[in-house]
Design brief:
The protein is an alpha+beta fold. Helix content is about 25%, strand content about 20%.
Length: about 90
């Protein structure tokens, strides 16, 4: 059986990693950036939109960002900024 003393460092490390992802995203991806994202499994072409917020921590454990036209936030692991030549590619 795993004890809380064993889990606490792992949980703290995961939270630090997520917080680092938020910090890095916000340094490099401004609000309004075109992105490709997936709301479920990261399969297929995904959807395209623009970010409408900075990245943030959801519930203290998951790095997320909100997109135009999407009613819920999406984990940063399921979002990638688009290069200018990729914008609109999924709709062609």
């Amino acid at each position: 059986m795993t004890t809380p003393e064993v889990l606490e460092p792992a949980v703290a490390g995961a939270r630090q990693a997520q917080a680092g992802a938020v910090e890095q995203w916000n340094k490099t991806v401004p609000v309004g950036t075109p992105v490709r994202y997936w709301t479920g499994y990261r399969e297929g072409d995904g959807k395209q939109s623009r970010t409408r917020t900075d990245a943030q921590m959801l519930g203290g454990h998951t790095a997320v960002v909100w997109m135009d036209g999407e009613p819920s936030c999406v984990a940063l692991t399921h979002v990638e900024p688009l290069l200018s030549d990729e914008i609109g590619e999924a709709r062609d």
